[in-house]
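HUMAN: Forgive my ignorance: could you write out one protein's sequence and backbone structure tokens?

ASSISTANT:
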Amino acid sequence: MKLIDFDEKFNRKVAEMLEKHAGERTEEEWEDAIAKAYEQFGDTYMGAIGMTPRQYFEKMTESGLVETLKEYILQDVPVPDILCGELEKRGASDALLALLNETDEELVHYALNLIGSDPRALPRYAEMLSEEAYDEHIKDALADLLKERADEVKESILPLVKTENKPYALEILSRCRQRDDRVFEALLAAFRTGEEEEVPLYAGYLAAYGDERALSALEEQIDREDIDFVTFQELKFAIEALGGEYTKQRDFSQDESYKKIMAAGAGTDIFGSGKGN
């Protein structure tokens, strides 16, 4: 398939515009002007194709659009935003959803961005999260999308807590709004058994989930004398997020993370005083 490098044509026009009007606008003004120019470019007649770039993609079928996207990536030609816009307008078509069975990282990222958290993609997203074919970059993106629909995918995600994909599962489950003891116990168990460096993260998940039953575990952890300042702060935040309060004075003046924060803050801690809380 012979592709048209629409971005190259547009960039050439922009370069001419910048050269002709250099110094007439601020950087921010130029960004706005270029964005508007691209919109106009999409509706500008091109003799080489006998139509506008937008019409060029509008006349394609859904499968044609997807195949064209694949070719742009395969041939290493910049993917036009106009093509992506048309795919988004068509929604999660069967052809677009089929890309979720591909393993090429760039292609899958495009599919995830175009499909978003559409309910039709959720079952496949949960499957992808458990498959070895996808690396952490894809799984991070999947987790971000699944978090938006945590209650809907809960049953598919809970089994992953007992697999190597546990970190993603916990992140997603922490966003469930419907109370479920299985979710709570999974988050609480991770907090209680996690490595030292994981405590702040898992405390944040308990705070995000919002079940005040976690307060006793958080309060027990924050009372430890061997926690560092950053962990203390995260635990304190989680306790307050769940409606609790921690008022015990602690001295972190010898803690390395506290010293760095103090140095960056020119001698005042995050509470505006010169002492550890």
